[in-house]
């Protein structure tokens, strides 16, 4: 009987995947209108895509922006939710990492919460902060506001949620009214889902002891429910609605075919190979402001998983001490070459020289005499994705780095 049930479940899954693949053709047509219909990024320069090499892990940064100033729709918006999706293509593993919005970072030389990055410089600024924080490359991003969130959840038909706490909160200025009773099972449509997603305290001051960290726990429960919905046959009749909704309310630098490809791949990942987590750290008041202090040591295992180059377990076979590294500063900011030199020396590059180079907007690495399989490691070590290979210098084993204005300072 068990074998029959397994084969039946497997057959249903295969049918679902087949239908999704077929509908992908129609999905493609809808998604072609992403750039035309999206209005979330007006006035901002497009964010550069970072192509992943074959077998390299894919990192997608999802950002949900808040409503901003209800009286001024053009005012820059902060991010209310920041989620990193890390996909190991070779081992078919998925890490979904929530980044607390109060995480302390340095933006333009000032201490800020990471959720301010988007308000200051749009998606590009937030991407740079996450790349610097976790020492990874972000390949793509996706962004929605709460209006988009509501419509997308409606398009999948909502989800059923067991309520584990009494939730009673009202904010007339945002037209936000949250009322759920502990013990209820509630069907969350888009509006109700937003209320559940945003709640962290009640009108009387009670609520989540850990504030935003507790709210992230609720959000992860919600994300799990959404994943389950997408993996079930119930999503199939909803696909046309999803296809019609996404282009209207989402902003992304992914191509339509990439969205289809990775959505399909994510659906195939077993729950056992899916890790949903939150960055570790502690909440702390600094200068009267509450911050989340990211703890790099406490996140060591997660960082190893994010930074690992899949299929390159022998990456340590690259003898960094034997490589000539020349770092040139192509900006007006002093000290960048020296700072990068100090950093990479700690990573094993002992033969490093620095100097000034021609002024340039984009950072670049020129590699000579080094196996291509080590390029992802070099990109990660130097925080630069623009890599050229020059093997015209016979016998030369070198890395030349030109720091441009876009370097993650």
Number of strands: 19
Main sheet attributes: strand count, strand direction, barrel closure: 6 strands, mixed
Question: How much helical structure, as a percent, in the residues?
Answer: 25-40%
**Mass-distribution shape:** globular
Sequence of strands across the biggest β-sheet: 11-6-1-2-3-12
Q: Return the structural class.
A: alpha/beta
Radius of gyration: 23 Å
The domain tally reads 2
> In the CATH hierarchy, what is the superfamily of the largest domain?
LCP protein
The assigned CATH architecture of the largest domain is 3-Layer(aba) Sandwich
Q: State the helix count.
A: 11
Compact summary:
The chain is an alpha/beta fold and 409 residues long. It has eleven helices and 19 strands. The chain crosses the membrane at residues 12-33.
Describe the overall structure.
With 409 residues, the protein is an alpha/beta fold. The protein has 2 domains: 10-151 and 212-307, LCP protein (Aminopeptidase, 3-Layer(aba) Sandwich); 315-403, Alpha-Beta Plaits (2-Layer Sandwich). It has 11 helices and 19 strands. The protein has helices spanning 2-31, 34-37, 116-134, 146-155, 190-198, 212-231, 239-249, 256-268, 300-307, 336-346, 375-382; strands spanning 58-65, 79-88, 93-98, 104-107, 110-113, 140-145, 159-162, 167-171, 176-180, 185-188, 251-252, 274-278, 281-286, 289-294, 324-329, 352-356, 364-368, 387-389, 398-403. The protein has a 6-stranded mixed β-sheet with strand order 11-6-1-2-3-12, with helices on both faces. A 5-stranded mixed β-sheet has the order 16-15-19-17-18, with helices on one face. It has a two-stranded antiparallel sheet with strand order 4-5. A hairpin with a 2-residue loop joins strand 4 (104-107) and strand 5 (110-113). The termini are far apart.
